[in-house]
Design goal:
The complex is a heterodimer. By secondary structure, chain A is an alpha/beta fold. Chain A has one domain: Rossmann fold, CATH 3.40.50.970. Chain A contains 10 helices and 7 strands. In chain A, helix 1 packs across helix 3 and helix 5 packs parallel to helix 6. Chain B is an alpha/beta fold. Chain B is built from 12 helices and 14 strands. In chain B, the strands form 3 sheets. Chain B has a 7-stranded mixed beta sheet with strand order 3-2-4-5-7-6-12, sandwiched between helices. In chain B, helix 2 links the parallel strand 2 and strand 3. The two termini of chain B are about 25 Å apart. Classes of the chains: A alpha/beta, B alpha/beta. The interface between A and B is large, with 40 and 32 residues.
């Protein structure tokens, strides 16, 4: 089991990976990626029971589905640094002929990816399907998925949320990245989400709140609580309060860096705030 | 001429139901999802036999498609069931991203396609689904002609790895293909041999094409009738071979002439063997309420329309 210090080192390295990936191709989504870095590190390094070798069927292991595929930079970095593919391959992010497409896909055969995502609102449905198959296969492992908060504006989510409660999908932990931002501004200004906790509860879900979504220990505590609640007939929703752009002061608390890459100077500034730990790719 | 007899009118959707029931017994990985149309899709028997493998998703087709994609992860073979309209247009993006682009082994089974859905009218009568589905990379597109063929196709697609769109319909129609047929995806079936005109038909129009061939025969015109149950991948060799002999072709489908079988045939022929072609299909229009027979007649989708198209194309040779 890695120590908190080791996990924190990885978090900083992943931040560097995110920034360098999007800077190199002058495109991609750093804001949400930075905000979810601690979550991904906790998930892949400690929370999930996963096999070393990737196979699509993922029998006998926990599975993760990223619904808000635009935060691919954090996903790719953590997958690479968790052993799914060479870290150097992060150099190919968004380039022609790369397995690291702008949004994650199975199409180019990148290990660690089990479904394409990018067009929003589809991840919970896919995760429910995988959870149903786990049950049919008598496989007691869990299904995790992550969605953006703005993404909850897509109607398909609410079909899925209704299904999961009505059908006792209790081997599923859906995490909502509550950073309050989306492309056009704050979720409050674009289309208010209302009380997300009450909405999930009204649909019949068990809700766990992680107030400090950029603090590893809080994430680990909250997610372990969520895990304990599985197997009791209800799907679990984790409300993860994060700060968009976390770890880079000029990117924090704004939607401005949702889908914009830093220039050379900004990159230098951002990297200086996150000094190299495990080594750049 | 070969003689085809109707062994008793049956709906193609019941062929699907029978195929699914058979699969339930032979393939434990087959699971079925339905969006509140179990009876309409004839999925009741599978549901009764295998309640643990039947998933009622409610009136929520987008979730159904996403779930089906997820269910493949771990080795299941999901068959989704709803009307063709709600199996395609309503959920195009879910199919595109979570199923087709993700290369998932989902079988999208679509009933009540075309105008023969009848009285419910245009909101439910999709005439664009073949086009939507054939444009998706990697998607196999099948439109079966009768009960026996639909049953055989349902069983066959479980063995095919990759996404499949299987289209069938609501009304009871002639059941004339063999009960024990060997359904081969992508392989056209020659039903009549002829020299003057090739008639390539799919779905409910295949029986109409056989009737048309008899009428044409009485008029001294020898029509070759080919049943194209698989629109993608299309059996290019069979089509080109036939038109090399006949020199002209009529395509017949219960679908808009834009985006359907006819356009796929035209593309193949324009590349390999340019040939005069007439299209029996709907002419860029929505349907309307009526009985299936009335609608087939009004929208020019019956034997009479095929005869007229054949006579017209013969003059263009």
């Amino acid at each position: 089991m890695p120590t908190i210090k080791e996990l924190n080192d990885l978090v900083i390295q992943v931040r560097r990976d995110i920034l360098r990936q999007v800077h190199k191709v002058n495109s991609g989504h750093p804001g949400g990626s930075l905000g979810c870095t601690e979550f991904f590190v906790a998930l892949y390094q400690e929370l999930m029971d996963r096999k070393k070798e990737f196979d699509m069927d993922g029998k006998g292991e926990d599975l993760f589905f990223l619904s808000n595929g635009h935060i691919s930079p954090v996903f790719y970095s953590v997958l690479a640094r968790s052993g799914y593919f060479p870290v150097e391959e992060l150099n190919t992010f968004r380039l022609l002929d790369s397995r690291l497409q702008g949004h994650p896909t199975t199409h180019e055969g990148l290990p660690g990816i089990r479904v394409a995502s990018g067009s929003l609102g589809q991840g919970i449905s896919v995760a429910i399907g995988a959870a149903e198959t786990k049950k049919l296969n008598k496989d007691s492992h869990l299904i995790y998925t992550l969605c953006g908060d703005g993404e909850l504006q897509e109607g398909q989510n609410w079909e899925a949320i209704m299904y999961a409660a009505g059908n006792n999908i209790d081997n599923l932990i859906v995490t909502i990245d509550l950073n309050g931002q989306q492309i056009d501004g704050s979720t409050q200004n674009v289309l208010p989400l209302g009380n997300v906790k009450e909405k999930f509860e009204a649909f019949g879900w068990e809700v766990v709140i992680i107030n400090k979504g950029n603090d590893l220990e809080s994430i680990l505590d909250g997610m372990k609580t969520a895990k304990k609640k599985t197997g009791n007939g209800k799907p679990i929703c984790v409300l993860l309060h994060t700060v968009m752009g976390h770890g880079v002061d000029f990117m924090m608390h704004t939607h401005a860096w949702h889908g914009k890459a830093p220039n050379d100077e900004q990159l230098e500034n951002a990297l200086a705030q996150n000094p190299e730990t495990l080594g750049d790719y | 001429m070969k003689k085809y007899t109707d062994s008793g009118k049956k709906d193609t959707r019941s062929g699907f139901g029978a195929g699914l029931t058979a699969l339930g017994k032979t393939n434990e990985n087959v699971v079925a999802l339905c969006a509140d149309l179990t009876g309409s899709l004839k999925m009741d028997e599978f549901k009764e036999n295998h309640p643990e493998r039947f998933f009622q998703v409610g009136i929520a087709e987008a979730n159904m498609m996403g779930m089906a994609a997820g269910m493949t992860i771990g080795g299941k073979i999901p068959f989704t069931g709803t009307f063709a309209n709600f199996s395609t247009g309503r959920v195009y993006d879910q199919i595109r991203q979570s199923i087709a682009y993700s290369g998932k082994n989902v079988k999208i089974c679509a009933s009540h396609a075309g105008v023969t859905l009848g009285e419910d009218g245009a909101t439910h009568q999709i005439l664009e689904d073949l086009g939507l589905m054939k444009m998706l990379p990697g998607m196999t597109v099948i439109n079966t002609c009768d009960y026996n063929q639909t049953k055989a196709a349902t069983i066959a697609i479980a063995e095919h790895k990759g996404p499949v769109y299987l289209r069938f319909g609501r009304p009871k129609v002639a059941n004339f293909t063999a009960e024990d047929q060997n359904f081969k995806i992508g392989k056209a079936v020659q039903l009549q041999e002829g020299n003057d005109v090739t008639i390539v038909a799919t779905g409910h129009l295949v029986w109409e094409a056989l009737q048309a061939a008899e009428t044409l025969n009485e008029k001294g015109i020898s029509a070759e009738v080919v049943n194209i149950h698989t629109i993608k991948p299309l059996d290019k060799d069979a089509i080109v071979k036939s038109v090399k002999k006949t020199g002209c072709i009529v395509t017949a489908e219960e679908h808009n002439y834009l985006g359907g079988l006819g356009e796929s045939v035209a593309r193949i022929l324009s590349e390999s063997h340019p040939t005069p072609q007439e299209f029996v299909a709907t002419q860029d229009t929505f349907g309307e309420s009526g009985t299936p027979e009335q609608l087939m007649e009004k929208y020019g989708l019956n034997a009479e329309a095929i005869v007229k198209a054949s006579e017209k194309v013969l003059k263009r040779k």
